[in-house]
Inverse folding.
Protein backbone atom coordinates (compact mmCIF):
# COMPACT_ATOMS: atom_id res chain seq x y z
CA UNK A 1 0.00 0.00 0.00
CA UNK A 2 1.41 3.40 -0.97
CA UNK A 3 1.66 6.35 1.42
CA UNK A 4 -1.22 8.04 -0.38
CA UNK A 5 -3.37 4.92 -0.12
CA UNK A 6 -2.63 4.63 3.62
CA UNK A 7 -3.59 8.28 4.08
CA UNK A 8 -6.87 7.82 2.25
CA UNK A 9 -7.77 4.93 4.54
CA UNK A 10 -7.16 7.16 7.56
CA UNK A 11 -9.19 10.00 6.05
CA UNK A 12 -12.10 7.67 5.34
CA UNK A 13 -11.98 6.32 8.89
CA UNK A 14 -12.14 9.89 10.19
CA UNK A 15 -15.01 10.82 7.84
CA UNK A 16 -12.96 13.42 5.93
CA UNK A 17 -13.73 13.87 2.22
CA UNK A 18 -10.66 15.89 1.23
CA UNK A 19 -7.40 17.11 2.71
CA UNK A 20 -5.28 20.21 2.26
CA UNK A 21 -1.65 19.49 3.23
CA UNK A 22 0.11 22.73 4.18
CA UNK A 23 3.07 21.51 6.23
CA UNK A 24 6.16 21.37 4.01
CA UNK A 25 7.62 18.21 5.57
CA UNK A 26 4.28 16.42 5.24
CA UNK A 27 4.05 17.58 1.63
CA UNK A 28 7.52 16.16 0.99
CA UNK A 29 6.69 12.89 2.73
CA UNK A 30 3.47 12.28 0.83
CA UNK A 31 4.54 13.48 -2.63
CA UNK A 32 8.30 12.73 -2.59
CA UNK A 33 8.81 16.34 -3.63
CA UNK A 34 10.07 19.27 -1.55
CA UNK A 35 8.64 22.70 -2.31
CA UNK A 36 7.94 25.87 -0.38
CA UNK A 37 5.05 27.49 -2.25
CA UNK A 38 1.75 25.65 -2.56
CA UNK A 39 -0.07 22.70 -1.06
CA UNK A 40 -1.37 19.21 -1.69
CA UNK A 41 -5.07 18.74 -2.40
CA UNK A 42 -6.18 15.15 -1.84
CA UNK A 43 -9.58 13.51 -2.26
CA UNK A 44 -10.73 9.92 -2.69
CA UNK A 45 -10.06 9.84 -6.43
CA UNK A 46 -7.81 12.83 -7.07
CA UNK A 47 -4.51 14.14 -5.72
CA UNK A 48 -2.81 17.36 -6.77
CA UNK A 49 0.45 19.17 -6.16
CA UNK A 50 -0.54 22.82 -6.40
CA UNK A 51 2.53 25.02 -6.90
CA UNK A 52 3.98 27.74 -9.13
CA UNK A 53 6.30 28.09 -12.12
CA UNK A 54 9.48 27.79 -10.02
CA UNK A 55 8.67 24.22 -9.00
CA UNK A 56 6.49 23.00 -11.86
CA UNK A 57 9.11 21.27 -14.02
CA UNK A 58 10.93 19.76 -11.04
CA UNK A 59 7.66 18.39 -9.69
CA UNK A 60 6.77 16.83 -13.04
CA UNK A 61 10.15 15.10 -13.12
CA UNK A 62 10.55 13.96 -9.54
CA UNK A 63 7.24 13.87 -7.65
CA UNK A 64 5.18 10.74 -6.98
CA UNK A 65 3.22 10.02 -10.16
CA UNK A 66 0.05 9.50 -8.10
CA UNK A 67 -0.17 13.30 -8.00
CA UNK A 68 -1.09 15.61 -10.85
CA UNK A 69 1.04 18.75 -10.86
CA UNK A 70 -0.81 22.02 -11.52
CA UNK A 71 -0.01 25.73 -11.30
CA UNK A 72 -3.40 27.47 -11.46
CA UNK A 73 -3.55 31.24 -11.94
CA UNK A 74 -6.19 31.41 -9.20
CA UNK A 75 -5.75 28.83 -6.45
CA UNK A 76 -9.03 29.75 -4.81
CA UNK A 77 -10.99 29.00 -7.97
CA UNK A 78 -9.00 25.79 -8.44
CA UNK A 79 -10.05 24.63 -4.97
CA UNK A 80 -13.68 25.53 -5.61
CA UNK A 81 -13.68 23.24 -8.64
CA UNK A 82 -11.73 20.54 -6.78
CA UNK A 83 -14.22 20.53 -3.91
CA UNK A 84 -17.19 20.53 -6.30
CA UNK A 85 -15.84 17.80 -8.60
CA UNK A 86 -15.23 15.53 -5.60
CA UNK A 87 -18.53 16.28 -3.82
CA UNK A 88 -16.57 17.42 -0.76
CA UNK A 89 -18.41 18.32 2.41
CA UNK A 90 -15.65 17.93 5.00
CA UNK A 91 -12.07 19.21 4.53
CA UNK A 92 -9.19 18.18 6.74
CA UNK A 93 -6.35 20.53 7.68
CA UNK A 94 -3.29 20.15 9.91
CA UNK A 95 -4.25 22.13 12.97
CA UNK A 96 -0.66 22.54 14.07
CA UNK A 97 0.47 23.92 10.71
CA UNK A 98 -2.24 26.39 9.77
CA UNK A 99 -2.49 29.86 11.27
CA UNK A 100 -5.77 31.11 12.64
CA UNK A 101 -5.87 33.79 9.92
CA UNK A 102 -5.36 31.19 7.18
CA UNK A 103 -7.97 28.86 8.67
CA UNK A 104 -10.45 31.73 8.94
CA UNK A 105 -9.81 32.69 5.31
CA UNK A 106 -10.57 29.15 4.10
CA UNK A 107 -13.63 28.80 6.33
CA UNK A 108 -15.09 32.11 5.16
CA UNK A 109 -14.43 31.53 1.45
CA UNK A 110 -15.78 27.96 1.49
CA UNK A 111 -18.49 28.53 4.08
CA UNK A 112 -20.54 25.61 2.75
CA UNK A 113 -17.78 23.19 3.85
CA UNK A 114 -16.75 21.95 7.28
CA UNK A 115 -13.03 22.29 8.08
CA UNK A 116 -11.69 19.83 10.68
CA UNK A 117 -8.32 19.25 12.32
CA UNK A 118 -6.74 15.91 11.40
CA UNK A 119 -4.25 16.27 14.26
CA UNK A 120 -1.03 14.26 13.85
CA UNK A 121 -2.46 11.82 11.29
CA UNK A 122 0.36 12.32 8.76
CA UNK A 123 3.08 12.49 11.39
CA UNK A 124 1.91 9.12 12.74
CA UNK A 125 2.18 7.64 9.24
CA UNK A 126 5.70 9.05 9.03
CA UNK A 127 6.79 7.07 12.09
CA UNK A 128 7.08 3.77 10.20
CA UNK A 129 9.78 4.11 7.57
CA UNK A 130 9.56 2.53 4.12
CA UNK A 131 12.50 0.58 2.63
CA UNK A 132 13.28 3.60 0.43
CA UNK A 133 13.33 5.94 3.42
CA UNK A 134 15.62 3.51 5.27
CA UNK A 135 17.96 3.39 2.27
CA UNK A 136 18.21 7.19 2.12
CA UNK A 137 18.88 7.44 5.84
CA UNK A 138 21.64 4.83 5.62
CA UNK A 139 23.24 6.84 2.82
CA UNK A 140 23.04 9.94 4.99
CA UNK A 141 24.61 8.14 7.94
CA UNK A 142 27.37 6.64 5.79
CA UNK A 143 28.30 10.18 4.77
CA UNK A 144 28.37 11.32 8.40
CA UNK A 145 30.51 8.33 9.44
CA UNK A 146 33.03 9.09 6.70
CA UNK A 147 33.11 12.75 7.68
CA UNK A 148 33.86 11.79 11.27
CA UNK A 149 36.67 9.47 10.20
CA UNK A 150 38.13 12.25 8.04
CA UNK A 151 38.00 14.87 10.79
CA UNK A 152 39.52 12.58 13.41
CA UNK A 153 42.42 11.81 11.04
CA UNK A 154 43.04 15.55 10.54
CA UNK A 155 42.29 16.88 14.01
CA UNK A 156 44.92 18.61 16.13
CA UNK A 157 44.64 20.42 19.47
CA UNK A 158 45.42 23.66 17.61
CA UNK A 159 42.10 23.66 15.74
CA UNK A 160 39.18 25.81 16.88
CA UNK A 161 35.70 24.52 17.64
CA UNK A 162 34.38 26.34 14.58
CA UNK A 163 37.08 24.74 12.41
CA UNK A 164 36.02 21.27 13.61
CA UNK A 165 32.36 22.02 12.88
CA UNK A 166 33.12 23.49 9.46
CA UNK A 167 35.40 20.58 8.56
CA UNK A 168 32.65 18.10 9.45
CA UNK A 169 30.13 19.99 7.33
CA UNK A 170 32.56 20.36 4.42
CA UNK A 171 33.35 16.64 4.49
CA UNK A 172 29.64 15.79 4.51
CA UNK A 173 28.90 18.11 1.59
CA UNK A 174 31.89 16.81 -0.34
CA UNK A 175 30.71 13.27 0.42
CA UNK A 176 27.36 13.89 -1.24
CA UNK A 177 25.12 15.44 1.44
CA UNK A 178 22.68 18.07 0.20
CA UNK A 179 23.08 19.86 3.55
CA UNK A 180 23.83 19.22 7.21
CA UNK A 181 20.82 17.72 8.95
CA UNK A 182 21.03 20.43 11.66
CA UNK A 183 23.48 22.96 13.05
CA UNK A 184 26.66 21.06 13.83
CA UNK A 185 27.78 20.97 17.47
CA UNK A 186 31.48 20.91 18.34
CA UNK A 187 32.19 22.04 21.90
CA UNK A 188 35.23 21.40 24.07
CA UNK A 189 36.41 21.69 27.63
CA UNK A 190 33.92 23.28 30.01
CA UNK A 191 31.54 23.96 27.07
CA UNK A 192 31.10 20.21 26.57
CA UNK A 193 28.77 20.31 29.59
CA UNK A 194 26.29 22.14 27.32
CA UNK A 195 24.26 19.45 25.48
CA UNK A 196 23.45 21.85 22.63
CA UNK A 197 26.40 24.21 22.87
CA UNK A 198 27.42 26.43 19.94
CA UNK A 199 30.90 26.07 18.39
CA UNK A 200 33.14 29.00 19.31
CA UNK A 201 36.06 30.65 17.60
CA UNK A 202 38.40 29.41 20.32
CA UNK A 203 41.18 26.86 20.29
CA UNK A 204 40.09 23.40 21.42
CA UNK A 205 40.26 23.22 25.19
CA UNK A 206 41.81 20.22 26.97
CA UNK A 207 39.25 17.64 28.01
CA UNK A 208 36.16 16.35 26.24
CA UNK A 209 35.25 17.47 22.73
CA UNK A 210 31.67 16.55 21.83
CA UNK A 211 30.64 16.49 18.16
CA UNK A 212 26.95 16.11 17.26
CA UNK A 213 26.21 16.23 13.54
CA UNK A 214 24.35 14.61 10.65
CA UNK A 215 23.87 14.67 6.90
CA UNK A 216 20.79 15.02 4.75
CA UNK A 217 19.94 13.02 1.59
CA UNK A 218 16.75 13.81 -0.35
CA UNK A 219 15.49 15.55 2.77
CA UNK A 220 16.15 12.57 5.08
CA UNK A 221 18.42 13.11 8.07
CA UNK A 222 21.07 11.21 9.95
CA UNK A 223 22.18 11.99 13.49
CA UNK A 224 25.25 10.89 15.45
CA UNK A 225 27.43 12.05 18.32
CA UNK A 226 30.97 11.14 19.24
CA UNK A 227 33.05 12.50 22.11
CA UNK A 228 36.87 12.47 22.11
CA UNK A 229 39.45 13.86 24.50
CA UNK A 230 41.81 16.71 23.65
CA UNK A 231 45.01 15.71 25.43
CA UNK A 232 45.17 12.82 27.88
CA UNK A 233 42.12 11.53 29.73
CA UNK A 234 42.45 11.24 33.49
CA UNK A 235 40.77 8.48 35.50
CA UNK A 236 37.68 10.58 36.25
CA UNK A 237 37.17 11.29 32.56
CA UNK A 238 37.62 7.65 31.66
CA UNK A 239 35.06 6.64 34.27
CA UNK A 240 32.54 9.17 32.95
CA UNK A 241 33.09 8.16 29.33
CA UNK A 242 32.84 4.44 30.05
CA UNK A 243 29.67 4.97 32.09
CA UNK A 244 28.01 6.72 29.15
CA UNK A 245 29.17 3.97 26.81
CA UNK A 246 27.89 1.23 29.14
CA UNK A 247 24.51 2.96 29.38
CA UNK A 248 24.28 3.26 25.60
CA UNK A 249 25.24 -0.36 24.95
CA UNK A 250 22.69 -1.56 27.52
CA UNK A 251 19.95 0.48 25.88
CA UNK A 252 20.91 -0.79 22.42
CA UNK A 253 20.74 -4.35 23.72
CA UNK A 254 17.31 -3.71 25.28
CA UNK A 255 15.64 -2.19 22.22
CA UNK A 256 13.43 -4.29 19.95
CA UNK A 257 9.85 -4.46 18.71
CA UNK A 258 7.30 -4.30 21.51
CA UNK A 259 9.47 -2.93 24.30
CA UNK A 260 8.32 0.12 26.24
CA UNK A 261 9.94 3.39 25.12
CA UNK A 262 10.00 4.69 28.68
CA UNK A 263 11.65 1.52 29.94
CA UNK A 264 14.40 1.93 27.33
CA UNK A 265 15.18 5.37 28.75
CA UNK A 266 15.17 3.89 32.27
CA UNK A 267 17.69 1.19 31.35
CA UNK A 268 20.30 3.79 30.43
CA UNK A 269 19.32 6.29 33.14
CA UNK A 270 19.53 3.74 35.96
CA UNK A 271 23.13 2.92 35.02
CA UNK A 272 24.17 6.57 35.05
CA UNK A 273 22.23 7.44 38.20
CA UNK A 274 23.74 4.50 40.07
CA UNK A 275 26.92 6.58 40.49
CA UNK A 276 26.43 9.32 43.11
CA UNK A 277 28.67 11.73 41.23
CA UNK A 278 26.58 11.28 38.03
CA UNK A 279 23.11 11.06 39.57
CA UNK A 280 20.86 13.57 37.81
CA UNK A 281 23.55 14.55 35.28
CA UNK A 282 21.71 12.85 32.37
CA UNK A 283 19.24 15.66 31.83
CA UNK A 284 17.67 14.90 28.45
CA UNK A 285 15.83 11.93 26.97
CA UNK A 286 17.59 8.82 25.70
CA UNK A 287 16.57 9.47 22.11
CA UNK A 288 14.12 10.61 19.48
CA UNK A 289 12.86 9.51 16.11
CA UNK A 290 14.51 10.82 12.93
CA UNK A 291 13.22 11.23 9.38
CA UNK A 292 12.53 14.29 7.29
CA UNK A 293 12.83 16.28 10.52
CA UNK A 294 15.67 15.76 12.98
CA UNK A 295 13.37 15.44 16.02
CA UNK A 296 10.25 13.38 15.33
CA UNK A 297 7.99 11.11 17.38
CA UNK A 298 8.23 8.73 19.10
CA UNK A 299 10.85 9.49 21.73
CA UNK A 300 12.70 7.38 24.26
CA UNK A 301 12.03 9.37 27.40
CA UNK A 302 10.58 9.38 30.89
CA UNK A 303 7.36 10.70 29.33
CA UNK A 304 7.05 7.69 27.00
CA UNK A 305 6.06 4.94 29.44
CA UNK A 306 3.27 2.83 27.94
CA UNK A 307 4.31 3.45 24.33
CA UNK A 308 5.45 0.20 22.66
CA UNK A 309 8.06 0.50 19.94
CA UNK A 310 7.27 -0.86 16.48
CA UNK A 311 9.40 -2.43 13.77
CA UNK A 312 10.19 0.20 11.17
CA UNK A 313 10.71 3.09 13.58
CA UNK A 314 14.09 4.82 13.51
CA UNK A 315 15.43 6.36 16.72
CA UNK A 316 18.59 7.78 18.20
CA UNK A 317 20.18 6.29 21.31
CA UNK A 318 22.19 9.05 22.98
CA UNK A 319 22.78 9.00 26.71
CA UNK A 320 25.04 11.65 28.17
CA UNK A 321 26.55 12.95 31.38
CA UNK A 322 26.95 16.70 31.88
CA UNK A 323 28.75 18.06 34.94
CA UNK A 324 27.77 21.71 35.32
CA UNK A 325 30.64 24.08 34.52
CA UNK A 326 33.15 21.23 34.18
CA UNK A 327 32.62 18.99 31.14
CA UNK A 328 30.28 16.50 29.51
CA UNK A 329 30.08 13.55 27.18
CA UNK A 330 27.47 12.06 24.84
CA UNK A 331 27.55 9.01 22.55
CA UNK A 332 24.83 8.63 19.92
CA UNK A 333 23.90 6.04 17.30
CA UNK A 334 20.85 5.93 15.02
CA UNK A 335 19.01 2.60 14.89
CA UNK A 336 16.09 0.86 13.18
CA UNK A 337 13.73 -1.06 15.46
CA UNK A 338 13.36 -4.68 14.33
CA UNK A 339 11.52 -7.72 15.68
CA UNK A 340 14.47 -9.19 17.57
CA UNK A 341 16.67 -6.17 18.17
CA UNK A 342 17.94 -3.17 16.25
CA UNK A 343 19.82 -2.47 13.06
CA UNK A 344 22.48 0.14 13.78
CA UNK A 345 23.05 2.64 10.96
CA UNK A 346 26.12 4.09 12.72
CA UNK A 347 29.48 2.42 12.22
CA UNK A 348 31.99 4.85 13.75
CA UNK A 349 34.07 3.37 16.59
CA UNK A 350 33.18 4.18 20.18
CA UNK A 351 36.38 3.49 22.08
CA UNK A 352 37.83 6.55 23.81
CA UNK A 353 40.09 8.53 21.45
CA UNK A 354 42.72 10.97 22.68
CA UNK A 355 43.91 13.79 20.40
CA UNK A 356 47.47 14.63 21.42
Amino acid sequence: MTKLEKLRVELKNKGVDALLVLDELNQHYLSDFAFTDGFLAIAENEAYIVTDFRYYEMALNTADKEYKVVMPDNRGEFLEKFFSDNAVKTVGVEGGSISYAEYKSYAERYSNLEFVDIGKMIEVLRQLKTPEEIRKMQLAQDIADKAYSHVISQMTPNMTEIEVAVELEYAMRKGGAEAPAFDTIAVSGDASSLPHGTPRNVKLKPGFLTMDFGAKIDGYCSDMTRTVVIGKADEDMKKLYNTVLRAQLAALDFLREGVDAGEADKVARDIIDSYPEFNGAFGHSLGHSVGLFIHEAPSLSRRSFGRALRSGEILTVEPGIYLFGKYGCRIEDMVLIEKNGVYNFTHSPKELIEII
